[in-house]
Specification:
The chain is α+β, with helices and mostly antiparallel strands. The chain contains 3 helices and 8 strands; from the N terminus they run H-E-E-E-H-E-E-H-E-E-E. It has one domain (3-250): Porin (Beta Barrel). Strands 1-2-3-4-5-6-7-8 form an 8-stranded antiparallel β-barrel.
């Protein structure tokens, strides 16, 4: 499956969920909302897809907590954690890594085949990776419908990534990872960690099933460049998330009571 088709698949799933819930709520969504709780809490499934890291697809958990400042503006915190697998290939390795591996080929081919790499060998070292995202900021809400809230937000996040190489025993992968270990870049079965910034945009819809409970579907697209000493170029990551949302606290639409 190509990178584009994977993105389209994720988008289609999110769109299907949004349309299905929206249609089931249409008969009751003709008026503006009468209750907007002071506090929002969301937890659900997340899927993070990063084409630039050899098409890695990571699945995990998403948590959001927010305060509604008024009818159209809210502020809060966003956290997610996802895990998945990919491979180190020259297509996304940095020029320094590619040059080092090329020199390694030449060196080992001169050792009478003792550690020689097959002439047709292409670097493909399995990696496991975990990505955590941390975001705090504001969100714009559109509450024209009584049962549906649409929202959009800037996504300014910090990414924390852990990656571990798993060279396959008895293959040239061990030779390649051994060279990277000597360069203090990547060690077999040892985790390296990197923090990087990310920026982009996100949005979605919250569908109210009851006064205090709903279903939220959302998607974020952010640009980031993790492990810039290993990965050649930065690129976009796409996070899709769906799950239950909870709304509680005083109704911010109700007139405030003034003391006599």
């Amino acid at each position: 499956m190509t990178h584009r088709s994977r993105i389209n698949r994720i988008s289609r799933i999110g769109l299907f969920v949004a349309i299905f819930v929206f249609l089931t709520q249409m008969p009751r969504a003709s008026a503006q909302q009468q209750y907007v709780g002071r506090y929002d809490l969301y937890t659900g499934f997340s899927d993070l897809y990063t084409p630039g890291l050899n098409g890695i697809n990571q699945k995990g958990f998403h948590l959001q907590a927010g305060i509604n400042n008024n009818r159209w503006l809210s502020t809060g915190f966003d956290y997610s954690i996802q895990t998945g697998n990919t491979s180190l290939v020259p297509g996304f390795a940095s020029p320094a890594i590619v040059a080092g591996i090329t020199q390694l080929y030449e060196l080992y081919q001169e050792t009478e085949g003792a550690y020689g790499l097959p002439p047709t060998y292409a670097v493909n070292v399995p990696l496991s990776a975990t990505t955590q995202t941390f975001t705090a900021g504001s969100q714009l809400n559109y509450r024209h419908f009584s049962k549906v809230t649409l929202f959009i937000r800037p996504s300014l996040a910090a990414f924390r990534l852990n990656a571990t190489a798993h060279p396959r025993p008895g293959t040239p992968d061990e030779t390649v990872v051994g060279a990277l270990e000597l360069a203090n870049v990547l060690q077999p079965n040892a985790t390296i960690t990197d923090w990087t910034g990310a920026y982009g945009v996100g949005g979605g819809a919250d569908f109210a099933l009851t006064k205090h409970f709903g279903i939220r579907a959302q998607m974020d697209a952010v640009w980031n460049h993790p492990f810039n000493y290993v990965v050649a170029d930065g690129g976009w990551s796409y996070r899709f998330s769906v799950g239950p949302s909870f709304h509680f606290g005083r109704n911010i639409l109700a007139p405030s009571k003034k003391a006599n």
